[in-house]
UniProtKB/TrEMBL annotation:
This is RDD family protein. Residues 24-113 form the RDD domain. GO terms for cellular component: membrane. The keyword Nucleus does not apply. It is a multi-pass membrane protein. The chain crosses the membrane at residues 19-38, 44-75, 96-115.
């Protein structure tokens, strides 16, 4: 692979790992927040706020810092800019994080119609295998 060539997107099987890692972690964080803050806030408000805060830290701040969420790092994946193969900018990470919520909402429709948007390079970012990034060097 040439040094400036963008690696192929990670396959669907590999991309399941972050979903089944980051999702339960966010639910756990929301549950802990509901227990800890449930007396001062309504439990569902505390749950939602804690879940969103965890999600933001995991999918935006951690991604900007190290190139992926906890689930992506465990799965050997990285989120890169397609323009220069570097880590995402804060703005790109926020756009992709917000796109993720929209994708969750439209997923049932996509499944019913057989449409696949999983490999869309949203906000100029692509999920790739860490091994594919090493091969280009």
């Amino acid at each position: 692979m040439a040094p400036d060539e963008v690696p192929p997107p990670a396959g669907s099987n590999r991309r399941i790992i972050p979903i089944w890692t980051d999702g339960p972690l966010a639910l756990f964080a929301g549950s802990v927040g509901a227990v800890l803050l449930g007396r001062t806030l309504h439990e569902w408000v505390a749950f939602a706020c804690t879940l969103l805060l965890w999600s933001f830290c995991n999918h935006v701040l951690l991604t900007v810092a190290v190139g992926g969420s906890i689930g992506k790092l465990i799965g050997g994946l990285r989120l890169i800019r397609t323009a220069d193969l570097r880590k995402p900018t804060f703005r790109q990470a926020v756009r992709r994080w917000l796109w993720g919520f929209f994708h969750i909402l439209i997923s049932p429709f996509l499944m019913l119609t057989g449409t696949d948007l999983d490999h869309l390079d949203m906000a100029g970012l692509r999920i790739v295998r860490r091994a594919d990034l090493r091969r280009r060097d």
